[in-house]
Design goal:
By secondary structure, this protein is α+β, with helices and mostly antiparallel strands. 46% of the residues lie in helices and 19% in strands.
Amino acid sequence: MKRVLGWASGVVLAFVMAFWCVTATADMALSAGIYGTPGTYKVERCYDTDLSGKHSAYDCHGDFTPDGATAADYVSLKDTGRDYPDGTEFAARQGIEPETLQRVGFWGVVGELWQVSICVAVLAVLAYQAIKPRGADRRGEDHRREPSRRQRVADRVGYAVLVAVPVGLLSWIAMVAEPTP
């Protein structure tokens, strides 16, 4: 029963992480300028939506002007991650849906990279747990034997965690330390 519950919760977590990874990757591609309509976003005002005051969750309202256009579209951004001063302008790309807007350039990519890295790390840990042979973590193993092919594959998947976690942490630190435009 314990094993079945572990597998079921692992599958649910894998689906959640895969969905988050896909959406964060799409947002990162938008920030990198791979698709979308380029333009400029001008912040009209931002406000903190967390009334408790414990955590900040900023929503911003402003205008997005596509490059070469004279008319601007009013766009509300939810959970921007920071309180942009009124009147701030930055390069942005608008996605397929008009309310999907991402900051373009280094800081935009860094803002999404930590999410992709954490998703990859969690998915790699789940894959490691699924691939590794049962009992591989028990003590008293015969260390003179060559590790099984399955154990070697699991170890290689584990290396993804060793790369994804530092990349995620460094990009999160860079995002937090980002200067306001």
